[in-house]
User: Fold these one by one.
Assistant:
Number 1:
Amino acid sequence: MSFAVERGERVAIVGPNGAGKTTLLLLMAALKEPSAGNVLIDGEKISPKSGSAVRHKIGILFQDPDDQIFMPTVEEDIAFGPTNLNLDSNEIDRRIKEAIIATGLQGYEKRAPHHLSIGEKKRVAIAGVLSMRPKTMLLDEPTSGLDPKGKEDIMKILDGVGETMVLVTHDVDLALDFSDRTILLKRRVIFDGSPLKLFENESLIESAGLVQPKVTKIVTILKEKGLLDSGDRPKSIDELRLLLRNR
Amino acid sequence: MKHENIDEFASGSPLLKIDPRTKLVALIVFLIVAAFAVDREATLCLGAVSIILAAVSKIPVKHIIRNLLFALPFIIAVSLGALIVGDIIIAIFVSIRIAASVLTAVIFASTTPVFEQIRALQYFRVPTVITSMLLFTYRFIFVFIDELERMKLARVSRSMNMQGGTLLSRRVFKTIGQTLGMLFIRVNERAKRVFFSLRARGYTGKAVTRRRLAFGIADISYAIFMSISIFIIMSIQLGVIL
């Protein structure tokens, strides 16, 4: 497979279980060596041997925060990455403060991460990545295991943090809402383009073992009933609600 | 799932202020002295020092007793041995020596956050592979307990319970074996993921922290107290005093 992610893009990589989404993310984060081919960042080849240079560029949020949170307190965990990057103490303090504010973790600084709820752990994990100030954020199923409110909160946090973001998920609703470009993966790239275009193609989606997003299904029904125009293409329930309200 | 906080009593103890390196050195010297101080008066002094430390540490008595109970089978076994080769008085004093040693170790462990203990070990050049293993064990023990608990629930939910069976029962033995095998696989998978996530945040094999270890007045006071105590115990043992 071959594809490029441009600066400032929001790309969702979707595919069924076992499609290779997480492996692809590990390759992109220079945590795994590709058996063939190359991964390039800013035109430079990267690999697990690239060292700390690549860590400034790429941050990865893992699916299970328990895999990611390591230190005995929230504050120390957020400082873990910048400390490994040998940044000076003032800079680390500044980054911790910023990450705590961005993730709404004020008051959690001295708490032990392994005693937090899953939603709180996710926020700690995000703060840990943010403190490294990566130019590109790779997100592996960031909302898995969260209740609807927790999911919304996490996506709100992520919405305001990254310049370039690559999301890996099999949550088609999330992919449609989040991305401006979607890649459908099933061991190889079988679609690369607009999320609306992908999710409106029911046969392609089904052939990849996925289902259409709820909002796409509702829009189809509303169009059949004549309640929406053929050009109306909302990406989320909120957009659909706004569209219907304005009619 | 809720778990016990290993560092629960560390934060409220006055002994937390003492540098973990000072405490570790004092503990090791105390244990060595306890191994050699067989004199009865010296043994009583050992007991007294450990009780003073326990009182200063402000650790709840219940917590101390619960931890001492773990050492009880060992104390009983050694005391029985002493009883066989000696008499009841020897057995009692042997028990006091072991209890004092365990109590001092419990105080060290309870008043020093695990991460600080590991940093002290790192300072004394304990191989990274050992300190890393301790660190990972500390961090992931609850995660593994959760995994084991989930596996147990899955087993029970499918009507598999081991009530009425013994370890010698083939069914129970097989189930335990399968559970351990499955746990090993899951732990191995998690270890890979943890390794990737650590690498992603710049980890190169040594856990670094921003907290600076530093000696202060509390360390000097503690070192003086322990030195005087050990000096008195050794003087008694060597017959210099009493």
Note: Chain B touches chain A through 28 residues (CB under 8 Å).
Number 2:
Amino acid sequence: MNNTYFEILRAGINTTAQDEGRNHMYHLGITVSGAIDQRNYKLSNKLVNNSLSEASIEFAYQGPLLKLKNGKINFSITGEVIFKIIRKTLKVEEGVCYKSYILEDKEQIDIISTKNTAYGYLSVSGGFKLEKIWNSYSINTKANIGPNNGKKYSSENKIFIKNSKSLTNKEFKINYNEISDNVIRVIKGTNFDYFSKKSQNSFFSEEFSVTKLADRMGIRLSGNKLENIVSTNIKSEGLVRGAIQVPADGNPIIMLSDHGTIGGYPKIGVVISADLDRVGQLTPGSIINFKEVSLEEAQNIFKAYTEDTDNYLNEAN
Amino acid sequence: MIKNISNLGDAAVYCDFGLDINEKINLNVISYFNSLSKLVEEHKINGINNITPSYNKLIISFDLSITNYSKIRQIILDIRPDNEINNSHKKIKIPVCCDDEFGLDLSRLSDKTKLSKKKILELHLNKDYFCYMTGFIAGMPFLGDIDTNIRCDRLETPRVNVPKGSVGITEQFTNIYTFASPGGWNIIGNTPQKIFDPLNLAEPALIKPGDKVSFYQISKEEYQNWNE
């Protein structure tokens, strides 16, 4: 059937299309974007038998209420998400994450909220019918780049779904159990020696809490103020996901997917690649500790992270 | 030349060209950027995600599942940058209206520098600036160097929303806000010209690192009737 789409009955707080991200554009000031939690993004695609780089719908906190029109699909939701499926019979089913479902024409998915985390992912069999902009489906709402004119979804939009031949009655499931852990592993940054000995120690020993200023661009933390003894500004230079900048007020900011491409604050550290998904999922009020690791340790931890991801992906075969 | 190479986290290489900021050093950064970009385009290196040139640094971020720090570091050490590529840089003239409603900080700058608004603009306009880098927000050019008499610090409290098209100055640099954005630069005018066009997929950014840019003053009427 053609022209299958989701009608948006409620858009949710920040509902966008995301994928692996948009690369090779930093030098123009265009940031990487992409799913904040890359592992959960991939798992949602895998559960509906998609290529792992298909676009998914990412939602934050309160998700959308979607009604399927003109078709029948498989869908899956990943993350820690409370959702319901409203069947044609008006029967309401409690949704379970990491599991594929069949959704019939005119049935609804009500994504009520994420639980203890910020982001969740919805994938549909065949993927969403979107246009790639600079080789990515990711919506960057700050620069209005990407599908849907670079804007988050609102109730006026429809989200079209590709014609899928892969619809199946077989149920796919992953037994996902991410151990919640508030230790974030970090490699010392290029300006680590800008900070006093006391602050260098407290950075790796004291707790920090996530403030309300947390979005797809970054997360501002508060805790013991980090004392800069060299200069609170550096000459603007490139940034990467996970970089931890410390402005003059002494409170660290962790860069996430929609971060500015360059910045002028000293970098005390960089979150290791394997911990980026977990950092992105932190919610305001969360308490975290930073732990120093070497480059070699970070590389080994990443290998283990990749193997874990692959094991989860293989469960959905 | 590169003074030091280190890792920035586990998935980026940080090339430090020293502390000075000048055209020569920046052109060296840009030539490394061009050489690396060429290798990426020709699929001679795998796993590089982004290359970010700035005044005197070059940051190369990569996919840790494909490559690693020591491999990319070696590639950079092996590069003999081709400075020839730099000859292709453009000269661009940008119209700017400096009426009070656009030149938000001109009066304050005039008090601070003890120069008349007219004199400040005279020193800023019609001078060829060099584009050191673009970024922060999409397409924002960082240009320099401005006359020493009009140099000033950033605003103590940054604006929550600098209007799109604003032309700002701080320290030795001048820039253009390609989108409405928070920002702390001193605003002296506004350009009606589109500096970044997300619909122009082939050439979204009008100004690129290495380009020469100058500003010329237009009236409010010309501003309002501006048509590219």
Note: Chain A has a mean pLDDT of 95.
